[in-house]
Amino acid sequence: MAIVNDGGGFNISVREELFDTVIELKETFNADFEESYNRLEDIYKKMSSDDGFKGQACEGFMELFDILLQFHKDIKDKMPSFFNEFDNFRESLEEIKSTSVYKELY
């Protein structure tokens, strides 16, 4: 967004392609993260059912893996609210652009 005073008033311009890029980034992130999380969970399930990983030597590894899975799950659950802010910003921008003040300035 740029605000310029060209002598005849203020000119406000918005590069909407930047918002499109943010939306695309959000969708890509969500897709990649979902895929990564599912792969990690599959590996965990395979390892936890394998007798070779049930020995005492591997308990620490399994606990660490549990923590990692929980961390991924927490991020997965919490990040959508962060990315929703981009959607909210775009909606707010659309509201601003529909006002008479914006139309007069633009």
From TrEMBL:
Domain of life: Bacteria
Name recorded for this polypeptide: LXG domain-containing protein
Species assigned in the record: Thomasclavelia spiroformis
